[in-house]
Amino acid sequence: MSQPNTQRNLATWKGVCSETDLVSNSGVVVWLDGSQVALFYLPGAQDQTLFAIDNHDPESGANVIGRGLIGSIKGDLVVAAPIYKQHYRLEDGQCLEAPDQRLRVWPVRLNAGVVELALD
Which PANTHER family match (predicted)? Predict the structure, then answer.
């Protein structure tokens, strides 16, 4: 995983699960201060291996992003929403089919076996 930048080092981090709770090349969902966050662990990715993105699908209104399929489109790692199949970039939450849609993303890191998310 890439090293956090200086801004991320100043963030307040909150543990949300254990590294052993992650499933390789798949999503798991955690609760963070009233929000469902989908975590995707991609151990074969080159730069960043852990991503945290909003679990709420704006098209269907369901909390299902964590069950989406992971893939790559034009070099971007994406998750396909399970119901209507929009593709969201894991890096920044941007929808490839509808540029006006974006899922929230959180800075995420592994710290001594604990998955931590940065709080606003």
Answer: NITRITE REDUCTASE (NADH) SMALL SUBUNIT, PTHR40562
Cβ–Cβ under 8 Å, residues 115 and 22? yes
Distance (Å) of CA 38 to CA 6, 10, 31:
24, 23, 9
Taking the C-alpha atoms of residue 22 and residue 13, their distance in angstroms, rounded to an integer, is 18
pLDDT tens digits, residue range 92-112? 999 999 999 999 999 999 999
**φ, ψ for residue 20 (rounded to 5)?**
-70, -15
pTM for the complete prediction? 0.89
CB 38 within 8 A of CB 54: yes
Task: At 112, list the tokens.
Answer: 């001594």
Q: How does pLDDT run across 78-97, given as a tens digit for each residue?
A: 999 999 999 999 999 999 99
Tokens of 66: 């964590």
